Amino acid sequence: MCGIFGISDNKDASKLNYVGLFTLQHRGQESAGMAVDSKGSIHYYNGMGLVSEVFSNDMFQSFQGSSAIGHVRYSTTGSSNVNNAQPLFFNSYLGQTAIAHNGNLTNAAALRTQLQKQGAIFQTSTDSEVIIHLMAKYHRATIEDTIADNLNKLEGAYSFLFLSPGKMIGARDPNGIRPLVLGKLGKSYILSSETCAIEVVGGEVVREIEPGEIVVIEKGKLKFKKFGKPRKTAKCIFEQVYFARPDSVFSGRTVQLARYDIGRLLAREMKNVKADIVSGVPDSGTAYALGFAKESGLPYQTVFMRNRYTGRSFIQPDQKIREFTAHLKLAPIKDVIKGKTIILIDDSLVRGTTSKKIIKNLKKAGAKKIIMVIGSPPITNSCYYGIDTPTRKELIAAKLKTEQIRKFINADALHYLNLPDLIKACGNNKDKDFCTACFTGKYPTRTK
How many whole angstroms separate alpha carbon 178 and alpha carbon 233? Predict the structure, then answer.
């Protein structure tokens, strides 16, 4: 999962892009990068680390332009190194172009092999580079037509931003798996992975880019183009379960409200449960817990002091780092916990190791019982579209039944939300067009 942000026709493009990327930092913490259109020439800069670490005040003095695109990354394909940091840049028959990609291309390996046999020389190990070589080999008169033709060769999930002199282009995969939103700030247009970044820079949300749609922004004007055959929309439901910021809008309302409703539905499923307090694993679990508390009448209490200077444990590239980060960032508040039966709510249970450590720490701090409640169904299948679950062997629910998982994490009870209720909450009682392959194994595209 990554975050992309772009803004056109603005004298403060690089600074606003910095703010947009900073707002999307939750989507990737390994690397950050930016490309700007400066008087008809594309300049770019990428680095490892957080947005605030990669970009300096001094850099902005020489890194200015009228339009900019940016990227924050955590790796799902390609190793975690600066060569894979985006935006990627290339110079071809079409001229200078920078590209930023959110998602995973499931046929990237096959395309890469084919292109290498035809003479292509790849500079990175990321799947995103495939589109660059396709565009260089199979080009049309304009960059937007070239992009449209070559997107039809891709399988999987993608939202792309392209920047060339005088043009910013956005594209979203035909299933709409990865989000891309159009916004407006004065005479400038914005493209972003989430609505929150548009609003933080002072813009207004216009609409989502539709599945299978390209938008070309040139000289302050918009041009929309459909590519490929229509497919069934399958938006990633995990955006609302975990990844997206609470103030971002999906399916017509904020993620915070969707998570609150998930909590309420969980309480209805568990209406006879006995406990002293309800709490959530910060941050996403907090909204679930508040909804549960409201519906059940049980008091909500904060049971952890969170260290906000640590990253998100789920998106760390190494399992040992994930476990260390999870242990470091949550410190139990003993006076609240001691002698209590606690309903503890988290967004998901992926590998089980983090939940096990959290429960161990709560019981060590004096908790009487921990009833573990998960705001999504068991994750039993790999995601091939940008979430870091590449093999089923890493997924605890693919190997063990619920009771076995309960014993492994040492909870006194374990309850998962059912899938219809998750879809109901995330879809605002209207939208049912989600990718739920991680729960069901039913994938909207070919996976190889």
Answer: 11
Domain limits, CATH 3.60.20.10, in the chain: 2-233
Query: What is this structure's pTM?
Result: 0.92
For tokens 């069901």, what's the residue?
A: 440
**2-233: CATH homologous superfamily?**
Aminohydrolase, N-terminal nucleophile (Ntn) domain (3.60.20.10)
SS (H, E, C) 123-157: CCCCCCHHHHHHHHHCCCCCHHHHHHHHHCCCCEC
Residue 337 in contact with residue 360, Cβ under 8 Å? no
pLDDT at 71: 97
Task: Specify the pLDDT at position 325.
Answer: 60
Distance from C-alpha of 72 to C-alpha of 77, rounded to nearest angstrom:
14
> What CA–CA distance (Å, rounded) separates 7 from 17?
7
Q: Report mean pLDDT in 10-residue bins for the chain, 448 residues.
A: 95 96 95 95 94 87 91 73 90 92 95 94 92 93 94 96 97 97 98 98 98 96 92 95 95 96 97 95 93 97 79 53 62 93 96 93 96 97 84 91 98 98 94 95 91
Q: What DSSP string runs through 169-191?
A: EEEE-TT--S--EEEEETTEEEE
| Cα-based distances in Å from 326 to 76, 138, 357 | 20, 46, 8
Cα–Cα distances in angstroms (integers) from residue 89 to residues 70, 234, 378, in the given order? 12, 30, 40
Given 2, 236, 383, 435, which residue is catalytic?
2
92, two tokens: 């071809």
Given the structure tokens 């009682």, which residue do they identify?
429
CATH 3.40.50.2020 residue ranges of the chain are 239-440
Specify whether the CB–CB gap between 173 and 229 falls below 8 A.
no
User: Topology of domain 239-440, per CATH?
Assistant: Rossmann fold (3.40.50)
Residue 2 annotated to the active site: yes
Give the pLDDT score at 309. Answer: 58
